[in-house]
Amino acid sequence: MDKLVNKIAALGVPGLVLLVAMAVTGWAGAAAITTALAMLGGPLGMLGGIAVLGLLALISQGLTEYGFEAIFKSTVEELRTKGKSKLDIEREIESYPISGDLKLKIKDYLRKLT
């Protein structure tokens, strides 16, 4: 089991996500991998699932290196430089399935921007 844990740990966050997705499928072996990737990929299927895992790797690396707050603030600032108004960003945030606390945090940060 130690060898398996070491291999999953080497994959990092994407490995954990894939492991959980495989467990949820109820299948075993190749069927579990195929189903899990298709589930993660949504309408894009297995290839989309692979892309999601790659994106998770990039995001988790960034979070580790810079922290959530820095990435969050930089992303909001980038949206503003690309022409999105504060109101547009707030409307988008309201439509996202995220916690109320996170929505309030984003809105608070938007209000502090000039």
Instruction: Spell out the helices and strands N to C.
Output: HHHHHHH
* Coarse structural class: mainly alpha
Residue fraction in strands: under 5%
Mean pLDDT: 90
Number of individual domains: 2
For the termini, the CA-CA separation is: 54 Å
The count of helical stretches stands at: 7
What are the segments in which pLDDT stays under 50 over at least 5 consecutive residues?
none
CA-based gyration radius: 18 Å
Q: Rough shape?
A: elongated
Count of strand segments: 0
Give a short summary of the structure.
This protein has seven helices and no strands. The chain has 114 residues and is an all-alpha fold.
Protein model, in words:
There is one protein chain. Helices cover 83% and strands 0% of the residues. Helix 1 packs across helix 2 and helix 2 (13-25) crosses helix 3 (29-41). The chain has 2 domains: 1-66, no CATH class; 67-114, no CATH class. It is built from 7 helices and no strands. It is mainly alpha-helical and 114 residues long.
